[in-house]
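Can anyone check this?
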Amino acid sequence: MPTFCTQGPFKFGCYSREPNEPPHVHVRAGRSTAKVWLLSITVAKSKGFSPREIAAIVRIVRERRDEFLDAWHGFFGTTAD
């Protein structure tokens, strides 16, 4: 998974096999994973994270949304709509 950034225990990035999905980031920390849509900043799915960790992840995504969108579009060679 190409990593856009690491903040605390969380690694944010994307997978190259998902270019046709709306912009999102995958989050990993240990064995826990989550997927967060960048346009609506909602959690698409999560496994292993506590509610407190999910809240922290959503806060980070909200704060770094523009950076993550730029990284997404740069990685997939697309432009923002």
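Reply from J.R.: I decoded it. Strands lie at 3-7, 10-13, 24-29, 32-37, 42-47.
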